Amino acid sequence: MRAVIQVNDLRKQFNPPDGTVAVDGVSFTVEGGEIFSLLGPNGAGKTTTISMLSCLLRPTGGEAWVAGSSIIEEPRQVRDHLGVVPQEVALYLDLNGRENLRFWGRMYRLSGDDLERRIDEVLDLIGLAERQRDRVADYSGGMKRRLNIGVALLHRPEVLFLDEPTVGIDPQSRRSILDGIKDLNSAGMTVLYTTHYMEEAQEISDRIGIMDHGRMVNCGTHAELVRLVGEETRVNVSIDGGPEKVAKRWEGLAGVRILSREGSDLRLLVKDAQDAIPRLFQQAERAGSRLTAITVEEPDLEDVFLHLTGRELRD
Amino acid sequence: MRTALFISLKDVRRAYRDPAGIAMMLLAPLVLTLLLGAAFGGEVGQSLTPVPVVLVDEDGGESARSLVGGLEAAGGEGLLELSRVDTREQAEAAIDAGNASAAIIIPEGFSEAFSGGWSLGGAGIQVELLQDPAASVGPRLVAGVLRQLISSFNGAWAAGAAAAVEAGAPGLAAIPESDGGFPAEPGGDLAAAQDAAEAAVHRFRELQAGTQPPQIESQSPRIGDAEATEVSVTGAVLAGMMIFFMLIAGANAARSILEEDQAGTLARLFTTPTSRAAVLGGKFLSAFLAVLLQAVILVAAGWLLFGIHWGSPVAVMLLILMGSLVSAGLGVMLNSFVRTPPQAGAIASGVVVFLGLVGGSFTGTLSAGGAFDVLRRLTPNGWLLEAWDLTMRGAPLADLGLPLLAVGAFALLFFLVGSWSFRRRYA
């Protein structure tokens, strides 16, 4: 399968030479028909990366190709093959849904019957055919998000970039958007998706690139990434009485790492759970506390991120 | 080009869906014209209201009658509303009662002094002008008319003197040397010179008695070969207001660049195959179309509501086009230098008000003269006003060449600077 997106050592520094380095030598490849997610906390450099690939920002180093065209040498050709869904809703709120689609369709050089037919198709796809004559200002947040995505689909792009498209919307709309992305991908569209929601990346992605502080920390399928955590298992416990004292005792145990603590609930990563769990009970008893609940889970991307960066994804 | 047109049509549609924007673009200039027109000229659609003046002729001689004739001619031109009273006290009472803005007193001895050859404003005698301290425009107008009439009287003496010299008299003693006359030269034919001067003055007086003073005629200026048409106050005011609000509308329409930047739609436009030049062109075109539509509506409203005679349709179209171009250019330039729409609003308002003040938008086509006339030509408003004034007076198209060229130069300059700044910012 050919690489539709090829990124080599991409770098962006704002206000060089002393300004912030937002993206620091990022490299990855996205194959045709793949959903590739960039996962990382806010400020990791995901949006800057996608902005450079959309030809909105000029890189200060490296190179990238989208649909076979260089983002530096051939930005016009890149834009022809690209649909971009920005992080914020970028629509004309005082126009109605159809007027918005018509305008953006013209910007993608569609016209006449072809444009009107395509608008109808997209309205059906995003479920807004009934509300097409209403002003966008009167749409709900989820409807705006759907129209925001619809605009990027008008010209049937080969590659779709979505920059955190589910931020701030209700679970039902989120579900609808994620299902829609999977449907588009099933129809052959290559998708580059950025998110800081671990569950979303896990659900829709073929491969995931984990970013932090402008760097690509690691990249692979969900299974490949989870294997990085090794033999560790996630253990969630609830403590009755003195969780601080218990946590202090557990920190000294071999093969036990405390991931987080929220009140009396602790998340741990432990090596060899069968050996470790009895020791956890023992130390809690010695601290005069009692474990009221304990669950053992396979590690997820949150644990992977912690393993790779030493920080939680939500930090 | 098509893409730019689509961007502009979208912007114009959005601009004219905004009720506040429409009020600012259309209602404000019309309402202000209504108010200012009423303040300057009483009823809208009329010319300047004649200034009420009372006249006291204490002299009653031939030269005084000649001066009165000149003033009556000014009354016939619609500048003065002349009424006569017998005494100075009655004149003062008329001013105190608010029945007159000014009073002209022709003192006793006026004709004798004039016949004797003394300069009217000099050592001999003075015509008095009493004015209502509460009024400002009216008395100044009366003073201007009076000054011109008296100049014409003094001019008679200059003509007489010149005639005498040309006749070969080496000296002229008709005016004593102590009063500014020419020194008598020994051996000069004094009698011949006096005869020549008196003949010239006599002839001037005869002409003056039979005709209106030429300076009063000049109150209705001739433009080129065409007969000048009087400009109504409402027309003058609306022209100034229209130019001011066109510049405001241009700045507001071009502000959509910043609004789109903030809303994220500008960045999204840059992710489409649309070039930056097309985006800028579209923004310029949208500002141009919005202003053009505004100007057409205002001109039509001025004609239909206020009966303003704008002049030749071709000239009016040219002026609307050039005014729209310069407004759009200024709008693009101003918005290319600021970051946010509120900043743009504040800065554009300040700049446009400044241009309006310097360029004369608030005084309409009525010129204050002097340095102001030089300063106003440093602004597009000043040139546009001049062109509107010429058009309303019925000037031929050729006379509009220079003002329109100047406005075009401003438009080009504004657009180039704005374009450079825009490209630098969104490179």
Strand content of chain A: 25-35%
How would you classify the quaternary structure? heterodimer
- Enumerate the strands of the largest sheet of chain B in spatial order, edge to edge or round the barrel: 2-1-3-4
Which spans of chain A have pLDDT < 50 for at least 5 consecutive residues?
none
How many distinct folded domains of chain B?
2
Q: Just name the CATH architecture of the largest domain in chain A.
A: 3-Layer(aba) Sandwich
Overall strand count of chain A: 14
Name of the CATH first level of the largest domain in chain A: Alpha Beta
Looking at the structure, the CATH topology of the largest domain in chain A is Rossmann fold
Largest sheet of chain B: 4 strands, mixed
Total count of helical runs of at least 4 residues of chain A: 11
> What gap, in angstroms, lies between the N and C termini of chain A?
37 Å
Low-confidence stretches of chain B: 42-47, 118-123, 168-175, 180-188, 210-227
Per DSSP, the total helix count of chain B is: 17
Spell out the key features of this protein.
heterodimer; A: 315 residues; alpha/beta; Rossmann fold; Alpha-Beta Plaits; 2 domains; 6-stranded mixed β-sheet; 4-stranded antiparallel β-sheet; 11 helices; 14 strands; 36% helix; B: 427 residues; mainly alpha; abc type-2 transporter like fold; 4-stranded mixed β-sheet; 17 helices; 65% helix; 5% strand
